[in-house]
């Protein structure tokens, strides 16, 4: 069976980290599996975990009383799931519903924060990686807001 | 040297008949025409379709061009002319001019990966390219379609997407901007699919069609991933009237979109697309 460190070497979010840093964060991680239909987390729950998806697909949903569950994004193999572990009050702001059977590496958020506080170079590298995720998702959200496929033509 | 004047016959519509009409989405219909006078056409080219008494608009071919005398056009009903075209019934007459314009340079992908990036109704002009690629499948390594739409019910040709997925000749990645929990596919913008598809930037030729903002983001993402600008092609849309580079309405810098386009290399189109109100 492959170690967490080996798996981190292949995942886009962690492969650029040094072997020492991968070993440090691997000590906060564990393999977990979720079945389709299960929730990885729900809105309002304590954001104790951060996930890197190895396989599968997870839908990030918002529930509206009159509209039901609306999927705003799906994440899959190689993607980051959850960033609420980084910032107070450490509470998830979406539901994460498993669409396809999913395997993840789940990191204890408090453990990761502790490692980053103790080793600022690791903290910087983690924040750089998260900033990349934030900017990609922000760009995608802006495109969604533009509603580019909407009815803007007239001929 | 002055440019040669276009053939004035190109301005005269020929009569065609609607053979079949079917609804694709809540606002889009496909029309199969009987057009016995049709000359050959290439994927990415367009016809000018004339709804008598209403007006004429450019509509790309969306069917298999092997049957050129029975061309298929997919039309989104968004204005007076397109609504009139979508309201046509089998047996109705309409005027047709064309084909016009520069199509997709399929040969550019020969020996490498062919990647089509479609947004919304933009899948329609790319479908003939996919048919042509599948007809000579051995000429390409991977043939990949990345397709984004607003919502699951707004996806064009859903049965065909499933069939393509099933026969494995064409890799299909589909995403929608938003969905309810009944949808089990990807949700997010089409640019997200570029990384999911694990493309090889060194060997691919990309063909993108959709809203201009979507094409710009796709092209930028591809270029950032290492794809040369010259390997990315976009299909532009402007207000076309004559379709032969005569009237100048679709002029974009030194290009006439109707004649020199609608398909242009991104390297050539990008500076023009960046100019406001051009």
Residue ranges of chain B: pLDDT <50 for 5 or more in a row?
A: none
What structural class do you assign from the helix and strand content of chain B?
alpha/beta
Structural class of chain A: alpha+beta
* Amount of helix of chain A: 25-40%
The largest pleated sheet of chain B is described as: 7 strands, mixed
Oligomer: heterodimer
Total helix count of chain A? 4
Largest β sheet strand count, sense and barrel closure of chain A: 6 strands, antiparallel
* N- to C-terminal distance of chain A: 60 Å
- On the 0 to 100 scale, the average pLDDT of chain A is 93
Question: What gap, in angstroms, lies between the N and C termini of chain B?
Answer: 26 Å
Mean pLDDT of chain B, rounded to whole units?
92
The CATH superfamily of the largest domain in chain B is known as: Nucleotide-binding domain of ferredoxin-NADP reductase (FNR) module
Poorly predicted regions of chain A: none
- CATH overall fold name of the largest domain in chain B: Rossmann fold
Summarize the structure in words.
The complex is a heterodimer of chains A (155) and B (278). Chain A is an alpha+beta fold and 155 residues long. Chain A has a single domain (4-145), classed as Jelly Rolls (Sandwich), CATH 2.60.120.10. Chain A is 34% helix and 32% strand. Chain A is globular and about 50 Å long. The termini of chain A are far apart. Chain B folds into 2 domains: 8-100, Translation factors (Elongation Factor Tu (Ef-tu), domain 3, Beta Barrel), CATH 2.40.30; 106-273, Nucleotide-binding domain of ferredoxin-NADP reductase (FNR) module (Rossmann fold, 3-Layer(aba) Sandwich). Helix content of chain B is 20%, strand content 31%. Chain B is built from 6 helices and 16 strands. In chain B, the strands form 3 sheets. Chain B has a 7-stranded mixed beta sheet, with helices on both faces. Chain B is globular and about 50 Å long. Classes of the chains: A alpha+beta (155), B alpha/beta (278). Chain A binds chain B through residues 57, 59, 61, 68-74, 76-78, 97, 99-100, 139-140, 143-144, 146-155, and chain B through 27, 57, 76, 78-79, 81-82, 119-121, 148-150, 154, 175, 177-181, 183-189, 191-192, 195-196, 210-211, 213-214, 217, 237, 239.
């Amino acid at each position: 069976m492959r170690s967490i460190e080996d798996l981190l070497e292949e995942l886009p979010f962690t492969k650029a980290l040094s072997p020492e840093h991968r070993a440090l964060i691997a000590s906060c991680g564990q393999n977990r599996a979720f079945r389709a239909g299960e929730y990885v987390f729900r809105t309002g729950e304590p954001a104790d975990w951060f996930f890197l998806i190895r396989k599968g697909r997870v839908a990030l949903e918002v529930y509206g009383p009159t509209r039901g569950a609306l999927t705003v994004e799906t994440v899959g193999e190689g993607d980051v799931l959850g960033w609420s572990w980084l910032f107070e009050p450490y509470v998830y702001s979406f539901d994460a519903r498993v669409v396809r059977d999913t395997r993840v590496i789940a990191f204890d958020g408090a453990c990761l924060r502790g490692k980053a506080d103790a080793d600022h170079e690791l903290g910087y590298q983690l924040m750089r990686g998260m900033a990349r995720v934030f900017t990609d998702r922000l760009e995608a959200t802006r495109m969604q807001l533009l509603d580019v496929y909407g009815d803007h033509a007239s001929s | 040297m002055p440019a040669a004047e276009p053939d004035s016959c190109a301005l005269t519509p020929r009569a065609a008949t609607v053979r079949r009409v079917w609804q694709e989405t809540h606002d889009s219909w496909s029309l199969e025409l009987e057009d016995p006078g049709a000359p050959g056409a290439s994927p990415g080219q367009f016809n000018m379709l004339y709804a008598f008494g209403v007006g004429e608009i450019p509509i790309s071919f969306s069917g298999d061009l092997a049957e050129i005398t029975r061309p298929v056009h997919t039309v989104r009903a968004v204005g007076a002319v397109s609504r009139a075209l979508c309201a046509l019934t089998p047996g109705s007459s309409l005027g047709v001019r064309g084909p016009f314009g520069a199509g997709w340079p399929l040969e550019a992908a020969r020996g490498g990966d062919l990647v089509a990036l479609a947004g919304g109704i933009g899948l329609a002009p790319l479908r003939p390219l996919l048919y042509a690629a599948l007809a000579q499948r051995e000429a390409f390594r991977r043939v990949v379609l990345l397709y984004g739409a607003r919502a699951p019910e707004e996806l064009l040709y859903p049965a065909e997407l499933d069939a393509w997925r099933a026969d494995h000749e064409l890799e299909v990645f589909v995403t929608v901007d938003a969905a309810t929990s009944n949808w089990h596919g990807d949700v997010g913008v089409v640019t997200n699919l570029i990384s999911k598809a694990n493309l090889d930037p060194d060997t691919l030729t990309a063909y993108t069609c959709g809203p201009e903002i979507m094409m710009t983001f796709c092209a930028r993402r591809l270029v950032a991933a290492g794809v040369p600008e010259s390997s990315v092609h976009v299909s532009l849309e402007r207000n076309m009237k004559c379709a032969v580079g005569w009237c100048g309405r679709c002029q974009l810098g030194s290009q006439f979109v109707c004649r020199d386009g609608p398909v242009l290399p991104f390297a050539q189109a990008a500076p023009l697309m960046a100019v406001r109100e051009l």
